[in-house]
Amino acid sequence: MRNSTFGLLLLLVPTAALAQGTVAVSSVVGSVEWRPVTAARFAPLPVSTQMVHVGDQIHTGAGANLILTLPDTSYIVISENSTVTIQEFWAGSTRNLVDVVVGKVRFYIQRLGGKPNPYRVQTPTALIAVRGTTFEVASYAKQTEVSCLEGRVAVETVGLPDREVILEAGMHTLVYAGAPPVIPVALNESLIKNRVLQVVRKDGEDAVLTAKTAAAIDRQIRDNDRMNRTTDSLPGSNSSITTDTQRAKPATLRYPPE
């Protein structure tokens, strides 16, 4: 078993020594299993293992954790009872880092030279775009919780690319399969799965919503996604923005608008 401090390990594993397609194994505590991309099943991770590769899968047991270091000295802390798959992080303009199949992983992403690292993290339900930050991903069953501790991250649901939300430092969100991310709130606040806007019809008015009012309601529901931001701080191939500056976040929305 190996266990050492983060700072010492980053000094001992220089960036130039890491080849493309490999991730350094910096620290192992407890029972950790490894399934190389060429193997059919998991086996205990050998003490002598220095690197893991694209397609390899790692599983940590109860009380275990694993630290992996990337070529740019960013590093990943995999908590107990977690399973991750190493992805093709160096390919293309957006680098797919890991797939958090199940469990909790914390990411410490470097901003070398003041420039963002366009990493992306995946779970069965969520895609997280990173721009140099510290954040945590917890993936269980059919939901993913994403917490931003420093910097900012963009979160979207797999299959719903136009419903992205931005997490600032100190915020978190929850992503369910097939549903837009939950409206972000502070880390010390509970996440609400379904945000409900009350629509009240005034006496004597037609009960049929006009197209303008329906669009206003939709805008409130989608107030932090790409379709309802005047600027897109994390642009991508699916990004879209609006010039509508009259958006707000009321607790209720009356019909018709006053």
Largest beta-sheet details: 17 strands, mixed
CATH topology of the largest domain: Jelly Rolls
Structural class designation? mainly beta
Number of helices: 2
Principal-axes shape call:
globular
Report the mean per-residue pLDDT as an integer: 76
Overview of the structural elements:
The protein is mainly β and 258 residues long. The protein has two domains: 6-186, Jelly Rolls (Sandwich), CATH 2.60.120.1440; 198-255, no CATH class. It has two helices and 19 strands. It has helices at 6-12, 211-221; strands at residues 22-29, 32-35, 43-44, 51-53, 57-60, 65-69, 75-78, 83-86, 95-108, 119-122, 126-130, 134-140, 143-150, 152-157, 160-168, 171-176, 185-186, 198-201, 252-255. The strands form two sheets. It has a 17-stranded mixed beta sheet that branches. 30% of the residues are buried.
Produce the secondary structure layout.
Blueprint: H1 6-12, E1 22-29, E2 32-35, E3 43-44, E4 51-53, E5 57-60, E6 65-69, E7 75-78, E8 83-86, E9 95-108, E10 119-122, E11 126-130, E12 134-140, E13 143-150, E14 152-157, E15 160-168, E16 171-176, E17 185-186, E18 198-201, H2 211-221, E19 252-255
Parallel strand pairs: 9-10, 18-19
Antiparallel strand pairs: 1-4, 1-6, 2-3, 2-5, 5-8, 6-7, 7-9, 8-9, 9-12, 10-11, 11-14, 12-13, 13-16, 14-15, 16-17
Output the keywords.
258 residues; mainly beta; Jelly Rolls; 2 domains; 17-stranded mixed sheet; two-stranded parallel ribbon; 2 helices; disordered N terminus; disordered C terminus
